[in-house]
Amino acid sequence: MNKREIGFVICLTLFSLILTGCVQAAPEVDAQQEVSKATAEIAEAPATITFWHTYSENSPENDMLVNTLIPIFEESHPDIRVETLIIPWEDFRSKVFTSIAGGVAPDLARVDIIWVPELADMGALVALDENMENFDTYTEQVFPGPLSTNAWNGHYYGLPLDTNTKTWIYNKAMYEKAGITPPATFDEMQEQCEAMKVAYPDGYYFATDGTFAWVTLPWIWSFGGAITDDAITTATGYLNSPETVAAYEALKALYDNGCIAPVIMGSGIDVFTGYAQDSYASLDNGPWTFPIIESQFPDKEISASPFPAGPGGSINVVGGEDVVLFEQSENKEAVMEFMRFLLSEEYQLKMAEVGQIPVLLDAINSEYFQNHPYYGVFLQQLTTSKSRTAHPKWEQMDSILTDAGQYILRGEKTAQEALDEAAAQIDALLQ
Amino acid sequence: MKTKKRQTPYLFLLPGIIFLSVWLIYPMLKTLQISFYDWNFIDASKNVFIGIQNYARTFHDEIFLLSVRNTLLYSVVTVSGQLLLGFATAIIIDQIRFGKIFFRTVYYLPVVTSWVVCSLLFKFLFNSSAAGLINYVLVDILHVVENAVPWLNEPQTAFLALFILGIWKGVGWTMVIFLAALQSIPVELYDAAQMDGANAWQIVTHITIPILAPTIILVTIMLTIGAFQTYIPINLITNGGPVHRTEVILSYMYDQAFTNHNFGYASALSFVMIVIVFIISQFQLKFSDIKSK
C-alpha cells in the first residue's frame, strides 16, 4: 500500500467509527422522546408491559399465569396489557444483562432471589421502598425471610413472589425393602446406606446433581459451618472452619462408599428418573419434585421428610423468586399496579395450586394449605432454612464452591486444602 | 481523469470496507479499549482504567494457563490427525476406480453437519453411565471392560472423545482440499518415476508431498486457527469439566465475560489469544519458507 491508500483506509475507518458512534448514540435521544411520548399517550392507548419469567412453556405454572391470571388482571385494568416472555433459567442471567446493556430491558421480571443483589448493585432496578406507594403494607403481609432477599444497601429492590426450600425426599418402596426409615441425623446415613446396598446392589442411597452451593449448603449449615461471616466480609475462618470441613468429609465418605450416585459428578441418569425407577433411594429436593415425577411416572409414590439434622440443626436452603422493576421501564406505574396484583391473595393462592409456595402470611394460613398433602413438610423446613449469601459476586462464589466440591470428591485435594484455597479466592472477591 | 480512474476501485470497495469497519474493526478496537479497563457494561461511569492489570493477571491465572495448554494440545492432536488421515484418504480415493464420489461424499458429510448436532451426538455416545452407546458396546457386547468407563468425568478420556470428534469432523475438509491439489500434479511425473522403478512410498514422499507442500502449509495454518477457535464441542460435551481440566481459551473467555461479567479481563484474554495465534502462524510460515527453499 502506498501512503495515499493507507491514508484513505484510515479515513474510512475513522468515518465508520463515527458512523457506528452515531448509530449507538441515536437510540438514547429517541428513548427520551419516547418516554415523554409514552407518558402523554398513557391515558389513551393501553400501556404494554413485558414480564420475563422462567416457567417452562408447557408447565402448569405458565398455563395458570398466561391463561387465567393475566386475563383477570387485564379485565380489571383495561389500560394495561401484560406480555410475558419465557427465558430458560440457565440463560436468564446473560439475557437480562445483555438486554440491560442494550437498553431493552423488560419492564419487570421474576428473578431468582439470589440475583437481586447483583442487579441492584449495577443500578438496573428501581428501589421500591422509595418509589412504590404503600410499600410498607407489603412488608407486613409477607414472610420476613423471602422479603429480606430483596434488600440491598439499605433499600428494597423487589418484592417476594414465591418461596421454597428442599427436604429429604425418600423412596418409600426402597426404604421399606431395606428396612429403614428416613434418617433423623447424618450419623445414621452410613449404616442406612449399607442396608440399602444389601437390598439394592445396583441402587444408590442418595442422589443429587452437582457440587454447587444449592446442593452443598444444607450439609455445610447442618454441620454448623458457613461460607462467610454474617457481614459477608471474609470466608477464611468460615468456609475452611472445622465444621465446614466435616460436612465435606461426610459427603466424601458417603461418595467413596458408593452411597451417592455418580450423577453428583455429572454422569448417569437424572435424579427424578432414578428415583422413579427405584435406583435412587433419597433426594434433597424441592416441592416441584412432586409435579415433575407425577407427570412422567404417575404411579410412583413420593414421600418427603425433614432434612437430617447435624450439630448445627436441620438447615436447608431457601429458594424462590422475587419480582423486580427495571430502571429502564417506561411504564413504572403500570408495572407497580401489576406487582400489587402479583402480591394479592387471589394470585398467590392460584399459583399455589400449581406448586408455588406463596409468600403471604394469610395464604399460608388458608384452608388450602393446612389440608395440603405435601406442602406441610416444606413449610416446616422453611422455618429453619437459610438464604444463600446475598452478594453481587454470588455467581462467582458459587463456581468457586462447585470447583472445591469437585476437587474433594475426586480425591485430588483434601477437604481442608480445597476449602482453604476456596476461602482465599472468595476473600479476594469480597475485597 | 487519471485521479478518477484511481478512485473508482475504492468506490467499489467502499461497501465492503464499511461493513468490515462496523462489524470487525470497530468491535476489535473497542475490545482493545475494554481490555484496559475494569469494565462495567451497564454504567459507563463505573469504568475504571487499570492499565495492563488485566494482561498481567493472565500470567498468574492457573485456569487460563491450563486452558492455553489444553488449546495447544487440542490443536496439535486434531491438526495432525486431520492432516494425516485427510492426506491418506485423499490419496486412496484418488486411486480407486469405483465409488469415488460415494466415498468423497461420505467423508465430507461430517463437515457439513452442524457442530452442535455432532457435539450432542458425541455426548450421548460417550455418556459415562452404562447406558452410553460406547459403554454398552464395550461392556455388554465386546466384554473388553468390566464396568462402564466414565468417559467425560476423567480428563484423559474426555479429551479422547473431544479429539475423535475434532478429527472425524475435519478429515473430510482436508481430504477435499488435498484431492483438488492432487489433480494438479502432472501424470508424467508419476509415469517417469514408475519407469525409474520407484515404489509407491517413494512416489508419495518424493513427488506428491513436495508438490503439495504449499497446500499442506495452507491447510495446517487454517486447521490450527480453527482448532484455536474450538468452543462448541467443549461447551456442549464437557463444559470445561471436570474442574476446568478440558477448558480451552474460548470457553474460559466466554465464562469470564458472560458468567462472571469480567468483560475487561475477557477482552484481555481475547488479545492474548490473538497474539498466540499470530506467533504460531508466523512460526508456521517461517518454517514453510525454510522447507520450500
Major sheet summary line of chain B: 2 strands, antiparallel
Order of helices and strands of chain A: HEHEHEHHHHEEEEHHHHHEHEEHHHHHHH
Give the termini separation of chain A.
Answer: 51 Å
Q: Which whole number gives the mean pLDDT of chain B? A: 89
Largest interface, Cβ cutoff 8 Å: A-B, 31 and 28 residues
> What is the approximate shape of chain A?
globular
Strand content of chain A: 5-15%
**What's the total count of β strands of chain A?**
10
Query: Which homologous superfamily in CATH is the superfamily of the largest domain in chain A?
Result: Periplasmic binding protein-like II
Q: How far apart are the first and last residues' alpha carbons of chain B, in Å?
A: 45 Å
Tally of individual helices of chain A? 20
Description:
The complex is a heterodimer of chains A (431) and B (293). Chain A has helices spanning 3-41, 60-76, 89-101, 116-121, 128-131, 135-141, 144-148, 172-178, 189-199, 213-222, 242-256, 271-276, 289-296, 332-342, 345-352, 361-364, 367-370, 375-382, 394-409, 415-430, and strands at residues 47-53, 80-86, 108-112, 151-152, 155-156, 159-165, 167-170, 282-285, 303-305, 318-325. Chain A is of the alpha+beta class. Chain A has two domains: 44-157 and 319-382, D-Maltodextrin-Binding Protein, domain 2; 165-317 and 387-430, D-Maltodextrin-Binding Protein, domain 2, CATH 3.40.190. The longest helix of chain A is centred in the first third of the chain and has 39 residues, at 3-41. Chain B contains twelve helices and two strands. In chain B, 75% of the residues lie in helices and 1% in strands. In chain B, helix 3 packs across helix 7, helix 5 (115-125) packs across helix 7 and helix 5 packs parallel to helix 10. The two termini of chain B are 45 Å apart. Chain B is mainly α. Chains A and B meet through helix 1, helix 3 and helix 19 of A and helix 1 of B.
